[in-house]
Amino acid sequence: MKQQRAWVGRVTIGVSLDGFIARPNGDISWLLDPPAGRAHAHISSTRRAESWDTFFPTIDHIVMGCGTYETVAAFDEWPYDGKGVIVLSTTLSEKDDRIRVARSVEDAAAMLTDLHARIVYIDGGKTIQAFLRKDFIDEITTSWAPILLGAGSRLFDSLPRDVYLTLLGSHATDDGMVHSTYRVEHHPIGR
């Protein structure tokens, strides 16, 4: 029997229409600074998907991989002040006092429990995949960008089983992004 977690694992991530979260060199400028001046249609459901502005204030901890950490650490300002940050890495040392390092997903989960985490933002393609394999993700918000990259880092790779999702809300924004929030069904009915 699986042990119940006290924390909720959530994902919010931008994705190209062909399923990539970064170019082959790790570049995400296509997501941060899309071209302006294009007119996009509007769609909306009764319930809107989670937005970054409503999502970010709710989280108290973040778990990311080493590649994501290196990208964020290079920003002019650290975007995670006031949040507990755990970096999954087998090689990274803890020279940065803004982070804790976990050597495995299980170590990160134990740290989150010990830290009394409540809502955890899981970030980075490989980290998301690893947490999904362990059933540690409860909600996924994807923001589909109107671009085809053709190559890069995929959001989802192979998984050992089907993962069923229930759509909670969806909407489009003026920049053409289609945002959808899904609940991960850990024990789908009839399975």
From TrEMBL:
<feature type="domain" description="Bacterial bifunctional deaminase-reductase C-terminal">
    <location>
        <begin position="11"/>
        <end position="178"/>
    </location>
</feature>
<protein>
    <submittedName>
        <fullName>Dihydrofolate reductase</fullName>
    </submittedName>
</protein>
<dbReference type="Pfam" id="PF01872">
    <property type="entry name" value="RibD_C"/>
</dbReference>
<dbReference type="InterPro" id="IPR050765">
    <property type="entry name" value="Riboflavin_Biosynth_HTPR"/>
</dbReference>
<dbReference type="GO" id="GO:0009231">
    <property type="term" value="P:riboflavin biosynthetic process"/>
</dbReference>
<dbReference type="GO" id="GO:0008703">
    <property type="term" value="F:5-amino-6-(5-phosphoribosylamino)uracil reductase activity"/>
</dbReference>
<dbReference type="InterPro" id="IPR002734">
    <property type="entry name" value="RibDG_C"/>
</dbReference>
<dbReference type="InterPro" id="IPR024072">
    <property type="entry name" value="DHFR-like_dom_sf"/>
</dbReference>
